[in-house]
Amino acid sequence: MQMKSVMPVTAVEVKTACSQCNLRELCLPFGLDPAEVDQLDEMVGSRRKVKRQQHLYRSGDPFEAIYAIRAGSFKTDVILEDGRDQVTGFQMTGEVLGLDGISTENHSCNAIALEDSEVCVIPFGRLEELSRQVEGLQHQFHKIMSREIVRDHGVMMLLGSMRAEERLAAFLLNMSQRFTARGFSASEFHLRMTRDEIGSYLGLKLETVSRAFSRFQEEGLVAVQQKHIRILDTPGLKRLLNHHAG
Amino acid sequence: MQMKSVMPVTAVEVKTACSQCNLRELCLPFGLDPAEVDQLDEMVGSRRKVKRQQHLYRSGDPFEAIYAIRAGSFKTDVILEDGRDQVTGFQMTGEVLGLDGISTENHSCNAIALEDSEVCVIPFGRLEELSRQVEGLQHQFHKIMSREIVRDHGVMMLLGSMRAEERLAAFLLNMSQRFTARGFSASEFHLRMTRDEIGSYLGLKLETVSRAFSRFQEEGLVAVQQKHIRILDTPGLKRLLNHHAG
DNA sequence: AAATCGTATTGATGTGGATCAAAGGGCCCC
DNA sequence: GGGGCCCTTTGATCCACATCAATACGATTT
User: Fold this and answer.
1) Who among B108, B153, B244 is closest to A84 (CB)?
2) pLDDT class for A6, splitting at 50, 70, 90?
3) Among A144, A154, A207, B103, fewest CB within 10 Å belongs to which?
4) Which residues contact residue A205 at a Cβ distance below 8 angstroms, ignoring those fewer than 6 apart?
């Protein structure tokens, strides 16, 4: 029998290969030709495994690299002096973490693994260097940053002007869409985060999240069993969002 | 007598000069040497005047350029199908507008002038081109995008976990800090936006904003006269933020 | 299979901010 | 410099979500 295969957080020497990665359509290599992807491969320093609940980086850490999620998922959060915290996002495979660190050379939020995960470490200086040579990489990187800004505006809209059930509906539809983009079922998935974390992200208390789930279940919109979600009526959820009249 | 002086939005031919601009420490030229600033000058296509209440761009418009605010101020907002809208930001001189458009090649929000304003039009294709040649420009641009992401996270924190008075205190301190960075008084300034717009940005109704202003006034934290604000007790406002205990 | 602990559900009550409503400015345009 | 309009303030009432509290569930350990 093998040793337990779970290892502590380490930068392993395994050579990464974007060209072989099934996430390349979502990630930095998107739109690059094979030769350019090879250049990217060379630049990606290493992979790093992060166990559930461990930090990939913390607020205040010096910024050196951005990270592409190869396996698993993360949350990012911001913490105030008085202890209040806010989840600012949930990230899945192919998404990029660490962009917040560019502005001040220090990270401004915490990134925590929701499950045992693995990231590709992309040293930022080298990314900028290669972006100066490879136009397609430069553009894709800019698109990824811009996408983050647009996503954040969506969350601001959600937090600023939606009611609890609308927020949860938006959240579920968003998760569904992202699972779909990764080749998983749009209607059935497993949430990696707790009700408390969902609540923090949506600006609600965990009890409110739980009650909204129960209401959706009563109304036949979803089947909920703890973290396992089955969406039964996607149009119904969308209706909840668009027609504000309750 | 002249014709009505309100003109349609136009791109004027006046040559811009970043090297002469007193905003260069806040804007794209930051950190560049004089020769590089000259290259940037050459790239900036034109200026454009935008009158109060007019759109610089609208959600859905094709993305071609980003804009540096040379004079005046703007708000950006997002509008849902059902009519609800959310102000996602207020922008002042030296700040950059339009980054939301990179991700899909279309703008995803509206940018509206709060007063008669002027922007420098920076064709995005040429910015990317020059960024490939000028390392300092590339890095400054990345910092500006990252700063926007960090700012958005701050707003998410505000919307997700602060009470009304905390939100307004954070808003006032933020405005004060940005006026200071532009050489204006930290303690006395003129807000260009209405209570309704402030409310939309802070996820509150205009009445709540008004009441919070009145409360601050009663408590001697600020002197409010319509849009004219005088901050009397900055530490007091900061205390409101950090010590959540009422 | 029992014990433990984090997570989730559900109920009862409280409250901050929304909503509804009515005056008051201030400013722009004629 | 008068009239109209938008913006703001303030008061009274309402309601969605928070808070407090108890229980239930599931996974893991023993």
Assistant:
1) B244
2) very low
3) A207
4) A199
Residue B74 CA, distance from chain mean position: 6
Give chain A's mean pLDDT: 92
Residue with tokens 């406002």: B237
**Residues of B in Cβ contact (< 8 Å) with A85:** 161
Q: What is the pTM of this model?
A: 0.93
For the four alpha carbons of A122, A126, A130 and A136, in that order, the dihedral sign comes to: positive
Report yes or no: B174 and B181 within 8 Å, Cβ to Cβ: no
Farthest CA pair distance, chain B: 62
Instruction: Give the full edge-to-edge strand order of the sheet including A117-123.
Output: A11-12, A46-50, A117-123, A65-71, A96-97
Q: For chain B, percent helix, then strand, then coil, each to nearest 5?
A: 40, 25, 35
A residues 77..96 contacting B (CB < 8 A): 78, 80-86, 88
Q: What is the pLDDT of residues A176-195, one digit of tens each?
A: 999 999 999 999 999 999 99
Are residues A145 and B143, on separate chains, in Cβ contact within 8 Å?
no
**Torsion angle, CA of B70/B74/B80/B83, rounded to 10 degrees?**
-140
pLDDT at A92 over 80: yes
Q: Is B72 left (phi over 0), alpha (psi -120 to 50) or beta?
A: left
Coil vs helix vs strand at B46: strand
The first and second tokens of residue B53, run together, are 């209440």
According to the model, what pLDDT value does residue B22 have?
87
Going B134 to B144 to B110 to A150, the CA torsion angle's sign is: positive
Nearest to A40 by CA among A32, A48, A49: A32
The tally of CA atoms less than 13 A away on the side-chain side of residue B237 is: 25
pLDDT at A216 over 70: yes
Residues A131-156: b if buried by 16+ CB within 10 A, e if exposed = bbebebbbbbbbbbbbbbbbbbbebb
